[in-house]
């Protein structure tokens, strides 16, 4: 298995790149930056195809709907914006004004009908994508929710808080299923395994925890990064996952062996985002250093 | 001595001279009778002498002496000048006897008494000698005796003088010759002694004791072994009972056996011969000193120490030649040393050195025993003494260097000595010995770690090449050194050592392929680490922290794998070393970021070796880094329970308490160290100072309390700096205290100094930036690069620093009315929020900055403004307004750390800014439109002018052509006329000549005139054109000017309006920079945590390193929090919540 840097786009944005997403369909890479813009990149040639403007402040997170037609983004300007990826334009009418830091990171529900965002008050808000309205709220009565993730089967919603708390909700009933122990520092990123059985969380304590969501126990914790974990992504075949960290490195891990397979040393500043391509053969990483890197991850 | 040797002695008695015949044989039997006669009767002195000598010859020493003494008594009673010769003889006899007795007394035992007796004898002899000199100042024997007394007193130079005096009288005086030779020998003048002895031999070949022995010794001393041997052999031949000669011969044989490179037969033969002689000597006189000394050495070589001591003591029983005694003492000392009796050995060597201070061997032995006794200073002196004699003795050089190595104060000397040794040792044989290399490494440890590291690697390589067992300690030390170097190295290079590792080993050892310590996958005996180490040393590109850690990890893993092999099983300390190795592996893995593995190792160690507290300590520190403070506190408390004097544990306990803001407990922890363990512990001093500083901050409303805390803090930092001038955290702390007490300029000086001294410390840079900015806001341009440096050097993750940078940009942007800076400020605030989104005050700041982007643009002069950016900024106002609205709407219950009222004010202010902005945009747009129009107008005018010009030019051209055509026509006409004239010339030559000439002239003048007119016309035309242009220009200028003036007036109005806003704002800001000093509690403690945890990953195996690292650790280096917001302290301080 070989890992190598396929492409490196320097100064992909004017300033730090904070988020990246790779569409399941249409093979597009979206990057969001503190320069207020979102860029669309061709998933094969890695050329910039479109520039999406509309946010007034830095773009915090991007997620692409499962059908690949729309993208949702959150920004420091407190708006949740939707973008039409078919016509590469903003859809002004659907913009949601969520309030400052009311919508930190956004995650599409697997059916594409909802978007979940974490808020400063410790709530997870579920927004209807069609009506642009808040539909439900999952309350943790806790601290700032820094990360949210839907399980791919749509049944579970997990969120991670500033103080290291991780909560798992049952989506249909809205019940809090588990509060997972293991982190005592900010959980900035989390992702479910494609089979919805495992939850990965990355924290400022430099560790990645693997939880069995059904039994609510921490199976393992992985150390290797020398600073905060900023982003996580599961490979579609469930065998690997990738992590990005403040230590300027991205790492690729083997799930079964629970060990690091490769360390990407190419970024010069913290790695804010990692995203797998649809087939899992490539990994996009974005960093504070304004660079977008594409790695070949496996033969897959 | 002309005494007739008859069978009997005739003693003339009394006045009558009657003869008493005494048989010489019966002297012994008739002793009483004879002495009564001798004492009572008046007998001639020669009789006494004769009788005495007779006694002497018969071996009756006492009677001899008595006879002499009674003779002397008679001489004293009835002095007779005629008998002077005999009187002198008697005196000389007694003197010789006394000297002999003195020597014997000296020799027999070393008791104080006997030496006193010997002294008495000598004194008496001297007295008698004086008598002799009175009688006969020139008596040969007296002079010789004087020399002998000197000899007995070991005053060789004086003795030599006496003997030489005697010889000047009589060149062939044998006793004087012998005396001279002996004196010269004792003074080390072997050749001249030899000459003297040879003279004696020529004069008296049959003298006893045989002078040949002395000659042999001289030869031997001079290195002429064959001659010496010949002399000894001859002596033995002449007198088989000459033990001295026999012994010396035996010793010579034996020495040759030991050193000769002859074939074994010869050696065996020699040793047999020597042994035979020894046996013979033993049979005759088992107490012979030479024999005893020789036997002592033999026994020593045979490791029969007690026998050796016995013989040595036997040799010492005769106190005669100091060198022999010294040697014997040396033997004894060595034997005792070998038996472990260092004290006894020390005494023996000391005596030996006293007896023979020039014997370097004894000095060396003394030094070694001093080392064993632990008296290093004495050993240094001894070895240094040897070095003064033999400056190139490698053994001694290296020994002294190794001795110096462990003591910190002597390490430089050690390095020097090693360098000397390196220079001397050209073959590099000795210096390439592993233990020497190890010592070199140790000596260099402090001064040049990299060099030390390379020495260690060399040692490893040599050991490996010599196929010796590689001590685990060596591997451990190499790894520890790697680790230390890695901690120091800040470079990050892309070339990784893993590739080299792969080249060195077929199956690369994967660092990350095992969760727990898996030793089996590493084969201890493939020493692929050596090339790995060498390449890391050689290649600069590989020399970086990560690679060094990788190498350390490899080495430790393989060392642990080795420790399980059988070859190490026997070694005693292997268990202990294994623990150290494991612990160090833990440290390396921790530094590599494999915290889980490190934790597993520590846990395993804590379980298997509960007394090994270091691993527990690391566990605690790791927990601390993960903010599991309670658990960490438990661990530290446990360690303190087991070992109350554990400073590290207490320090970390204090840090843990600081993290959770338990100031009182933290203070107690640091106090405990200072009060009961070490009052000079700088980390504790600094820690305590930091706690007090935060106490001062929280007491900001009680001025007195705050002041006392501040004073205390200041004192603590100063104390810490007194103990350790290079303590960066203390220096930073001092700067902070100064800044907090209002001495910002002084604080800046402090930070500047520290920054210059350290160069790379982000905390110093940060604080320096703070002071720069708070001293003068106009210096934002200076502060910005400092903040950026701080971010680059390690604060990239710190929202607080980003916020500070944002504030600097904000200030710069406002001062310069520069939207670019303002946008930078915007980006920085956003980054701060991205890192810590829960700080609502930052959101407020974000909104303010966003709003100010528009504000700054509004403020810019109209020429600078661009509608597009203004439109964008106007859109931004909406965002700012939205944010502010939301912030303003938040309930006070949520305890926002900004003031809601301010948010409300700002929100409303947004509208104004927008209005203004719209107005400005309108203005700018109109201006731009005007500009466009004007531009077009100007263009049009220009075009018109150009058209006009072109037209004119065309006209001119036409005119010109016309003129030219005219001229051409005229010329043609003229020509025609001329031709016509010429044709008619001949006919009307005289008649027409005048008239023709007149006409011609007139025409020429006319043409000229018309040309002038033309040129005038041209000039007239061009002048109005120019003036017209000027006019146009003036017009455009005047058209612009009023507009400009209008603009300016308006602008000024606007400006004043705005600046009112600004003043309000900057006032606020000012007030913030003032109270900013005090309002950073909540965040400070957080940051402390960061610092502490940063301070936590440190050090290699040794505690000292930990301390060093601690010193570099950064304290809570915050002076003030950047604040553009107007929130009140109390509301913002989460600690009071």
Structure in words:
- Chain B: Residues 1125-1137 have a biased composition (Acidic residues).
- Chain B: It comes from Geranomyces variabilis.
- Chain B: Residues 927-1137 are annotated as: Disordered.
- The complex is a heterodimer of chains A (300) and B (1137).
- Chain A is mostly beta strands and 300 residues long.
- In chain A, 0% of the residues lie in helices and 53% in strands.
- In chain A, strands 6, 7, 8, 9 and 10 form a five-stranded antiparallel sheet that branches. In chain A, strands 1-29-28-27 form a four-stranded antiparallel sheet, with no helix packed on it.
- In chain A, strand 23 and strand 24 form a beta hairpin.
- Chain B is an all-alpha fold.
- Chain B is 76% helix and 1% strand.
- Chain B is built from 47 helices and two strands.
- In chain B, helix 6 runs parallel beside helix 8 (174-186) and helix 10 (211-222) runs antiparallel to helix 11.
- Chain B is elongated and about 195 Å long.
- The model of chain B is unreliable at 502-526 and 1004-1137 (pLDDT under 50).
- Chain A binds chain B through residues 15-16, 18, 34-35, 56-58, 60, 76-78, 97, 99-102, 104, 120-121, 143-144, 146, 162, 164, 184-185, 205-207, 221-228, 246-247, 257-261, 265, 269-270, 288, and chain B through 494, 496, 512-515, 593-598, 625-628, 796-797, 826-827, 830-831, 833-834, 837-838, 840, 843, 846-847, 850, 875-876, 878-879, 882-883, 886-887, 894.
Features:
heterodimer, A: 300 residues, mainly beta, Methylamine Dehydrogenase, Chain H, 5-stranded antiparallel sheet, 0% helix, B: 1137 residues, mainly alpha, two-stranded antiparallel ribbon, WD40_PAC1 (chain A), WD40_repeat_CS (chain A), WD40/YVTN_repeat-like_dom_sf (chain A), repeat (chain A), WD repeat (chain A)
């Amino acid at each position: 298995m070989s890992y190598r840097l396929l492409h490196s786009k320097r100064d992909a944005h004017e300033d730090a790149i904070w988020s990246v997403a790779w569409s399941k369909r249409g093979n597009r890479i979206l990057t969001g930056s503190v320069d207020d813009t979102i860029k669309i990149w061709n998933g094969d040639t890695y050329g910039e195809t479109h520039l999406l403007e509309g946010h007034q402040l830095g773009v915090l997170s991007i997620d692409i709907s499962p059908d690949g037609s729309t993208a949702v983004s959150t920004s420091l300007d407190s708006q949740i914006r939707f973008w039409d990826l078919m016509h590469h334009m903003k859809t002004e009418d659907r913009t949601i004004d969520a309030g400052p830091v009311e919508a930190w990171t956004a995650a599409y529900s697997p059916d594409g009908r909802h978007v979940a965002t974490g808020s400063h008050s410790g709530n997870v808000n579920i927004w209807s994508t069609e009506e642009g309205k808040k539909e439900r709220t999952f309350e943790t009565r806790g601290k700032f929710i820094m990360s949210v993730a839907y399980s791919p089967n749509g049944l579970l919603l997990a969120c991670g808080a500033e103080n290291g708390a991780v909560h798992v909700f049952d989506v249909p009933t809205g019940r809090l299923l588990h509060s997972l122990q293991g982190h005592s520092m900010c959980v900035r990123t989390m992702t479910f395994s494609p089979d919805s059985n495992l939850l990965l969380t990355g924290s400022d304590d430099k560790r990645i925890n693997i939880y069995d969501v059904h039994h609510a126990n921490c199976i393992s914790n992985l150390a290797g990064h020398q600073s905060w974990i900023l982003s996580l992504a599961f490979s579609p075949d469930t065998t690997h996952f990738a992590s990005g960290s403040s230590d300027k490195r991205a790492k690729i891990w083997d799930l079964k062996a629970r060990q690091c397979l490769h360390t990407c040393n190419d970024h010069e500043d913290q790695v804010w985002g990692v995203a797998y391509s649809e087939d899992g053969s490539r990994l996009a990483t974005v960093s504070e250093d304004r660079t977008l890197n594409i790695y070949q991850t496996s033969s897959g | 001595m002309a005494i007739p040797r008859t069978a009997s002695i005739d003693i003339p008695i009394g006045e009558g001279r009657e003869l008493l015949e005494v048989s010489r044989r019966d002297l012994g039997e008739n002793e009483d009778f004879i002495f009564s006669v001798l004492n009572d009767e008046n007998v001639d002195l020669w009789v006494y002498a004769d009788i005495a000598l007779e006694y002497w010859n018969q071996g009756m020493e006492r009677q001899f002496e008595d006879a002499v003494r009674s003779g002397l008594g008679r001489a004293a009673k009835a002095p007779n000048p005629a008998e002077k010769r005999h009187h002198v003889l008697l005196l000389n006899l007694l003197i010789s006897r006394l000297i002999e007795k003195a020597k014997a007394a000296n020799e027999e035992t070393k008791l104080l008494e006997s030496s006193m007796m010997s002294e008495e004898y000598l004194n008496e002899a001297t007295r008698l000698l004086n008598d002799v000199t009175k009688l006969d100042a020139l008596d040969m024997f007296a002079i010789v005796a004087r020399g002998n007394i000197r000899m007995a007193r070991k005053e060789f130079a004086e003795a030599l003088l006496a003997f030489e005096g005697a010889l000047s009288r009589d060149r062939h005086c044998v006793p004087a010759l012998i005396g001279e030779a002996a004196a010269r020998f004792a003074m080390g003048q072997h050749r001249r002694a030899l000459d003297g002895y040879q003279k004696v031999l020529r004069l008296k070949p049959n003298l006893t004791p045989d002078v040949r022995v002395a000659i042999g010794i001289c030869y031997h001393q001079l290195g002429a072994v064959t001659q010496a041997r010949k002399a000894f052999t001859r002596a033995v031949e002449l007198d088989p009972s000459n033990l001295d000669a026999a012994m010396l011969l035996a010793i010579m044989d034996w020495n040759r056996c030991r050193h000769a490179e002859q074939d074994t037969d010869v050696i065996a033969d020699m040793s047999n011969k020597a042994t035979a002689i020894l046996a013979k000597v033993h049979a005759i006189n088992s107490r012979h000193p030479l024999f005893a000394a020789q036997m002592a050495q033999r026994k020593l070589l045979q490791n029969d120490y007690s026998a050796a001591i016995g013989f040595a003591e036997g040799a010492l029983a005769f106190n005669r030649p100091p060198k022999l005694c010294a040697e014997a003492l040396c033997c004894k000392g060595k034997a005792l040393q070998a038996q472990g009796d260092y004290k006894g050995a020390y005494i023996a060597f000391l005596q030996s050195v006293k007896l023979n201070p020039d014997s370097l061997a004894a000095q060396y032995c003394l030094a070694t025993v001093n080392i064993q006794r632990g008296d290093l200073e004495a050993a240094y002196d001894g070895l240094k003494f040897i070095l003064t004699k033999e400056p190139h003795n490698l053994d001694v050089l290296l020994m002294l260097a190794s001795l110096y190595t462990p003591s910190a104060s002597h390490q430089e000397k050690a390095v020097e000595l090693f360098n000397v040794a390196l220079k001397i040792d050209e073959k590099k044989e000795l210096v390439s010995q592993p233990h020497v290399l190890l010592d070199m490494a140790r000596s260099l440890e402090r001064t040049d770690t990299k060099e030390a590291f390379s020495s260690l690697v060399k040692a490893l390589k040599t050991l490996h090449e010599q196929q010796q067992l590689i001590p685990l300690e060596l591997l451990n030390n190499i790894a520890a050194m790697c680790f230390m170097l890695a901690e120091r190295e800040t470079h990050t290079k892309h070339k990784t050592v893993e590739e080299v590792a792969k080249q060195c080993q077929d199956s690369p050892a994967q660092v990350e392929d095992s969760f727990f310590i898996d030793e089996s996958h590493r084969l201890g005996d493939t020493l692929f680490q050596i090339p790995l180490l060498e390449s890391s040393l050689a290649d600069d590109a590989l020399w970086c922290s990560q690679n060094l850690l990788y190498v350390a990890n490899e080495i430790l893993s393989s060392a642990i794998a080795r420790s399980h092999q059988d070859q190490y099983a026997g070694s005693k300390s292997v268990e202990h070393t294994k623990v150290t190795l494991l612990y160090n592996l833990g440290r390396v893995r921790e530094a590599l970021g494999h915290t889980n593995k490190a934790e597993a190792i520590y846990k395993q160690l804590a379980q298997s070796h509960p007394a090994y507290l270091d691993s527990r300590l690391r566990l605690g520190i790791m927990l601390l880094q993960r903010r599991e403070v309670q658990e960490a506190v438990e661990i530290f408390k446990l360690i303190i329970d087991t070992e109350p004097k554990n400073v590290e544990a207490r320090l970390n306990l204090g840090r843990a308490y600081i993290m959770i803001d338990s100031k009182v407990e933290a203070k107690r922890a640091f106090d405990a160290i200072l009060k009961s363990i070490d009052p000079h512990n700088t980390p504790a001093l600094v820690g305590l100072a930091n706690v007090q500083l935060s106490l001062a901050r929280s007491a900001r409303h009680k001025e007195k309390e705050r002041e006392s805390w501040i004073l205390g803090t200041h004192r603590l930092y100063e104390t810490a700096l007194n103990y350790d001038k290079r303590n960066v955290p203390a220096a930073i702390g001092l700067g902070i205290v100064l800044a907090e007490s209002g001495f910002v300029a002084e604080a800046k000086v402090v930070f500047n100094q520290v920054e210059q001294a350290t160069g790379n410390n982000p905390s110093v840079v940060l604080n320096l930036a703070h002071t720069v900015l708070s001293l003068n806001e106009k210096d934002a341009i200076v502060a910005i690069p400092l903040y950026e440096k701080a971010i680059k050097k390690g604060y990239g993750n710190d929202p607080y620093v980003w916020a500070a940078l944002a504030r600097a940009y904000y200030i710069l942007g406002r001062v310069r009315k520069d939207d670019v800076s303002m946008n930078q400020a915007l980006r920085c605030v956003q980054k701060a929020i991205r890192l810590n989104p829960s700080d609502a005050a930052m959101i407020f700041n974000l909104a303010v900055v966003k709003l100010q982007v528009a504000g700054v643009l509004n403020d810019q002069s109209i020429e600078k403004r661009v509608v597009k950016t203004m439109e964008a900024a106007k859109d931004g106002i909406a965002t700012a307004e939205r944010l502010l609205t939301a912030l303003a709407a938040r309930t006070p219950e949520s305890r926002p750390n900004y003031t809601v009222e301010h948010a409300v004010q700002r929100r409303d202010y947004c509208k104004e800014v927008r209005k203004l902005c719209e107005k400005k945009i309108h203005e700018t747009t109109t201006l731009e439109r005007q500009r466009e129009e004007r531009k077009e107008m100007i263009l049009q005018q220009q075009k018109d002018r150009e058209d006009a010009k072109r037209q004119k030019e065309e006209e001119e051209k036409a005119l010109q052509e016309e003129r030219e055509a005219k001229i051409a026509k005229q010329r043609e006409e003229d020509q025609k006329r001329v031709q016509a004239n010429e044709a008619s010339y001949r006919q009307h030559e005289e008649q027409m000549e005048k008239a023709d000439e007149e006409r011609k002239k007139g025409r020429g003048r006319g043409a000229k005139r018309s040309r002038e007119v033309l040129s005038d016309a041209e000039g007239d035309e061009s002048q109005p054109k120019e003036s017209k242009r000027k006019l146009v220009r003036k017009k455009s200028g005047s058209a612009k000017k009023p507009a400009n003036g209008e603009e300016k007036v308006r602008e000024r109005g606007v400006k004043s309006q705005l600046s009112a806003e600004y003043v309000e704002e900057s006032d606020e800001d000012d007030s913030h920079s003032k109270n900013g000093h005090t309002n950073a509690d909540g965040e400070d403690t957080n940051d402390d945590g960061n610092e502490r945890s940063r301070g936590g990953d440190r050090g290699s195996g040794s505690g000292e390193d930990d301390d060093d690292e601690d010193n570099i650790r950064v304290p809570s280096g915050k002076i003030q929090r950047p604040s553009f917001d107007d929130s009140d302290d109390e509301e913002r301080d989460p600690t009071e919540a």
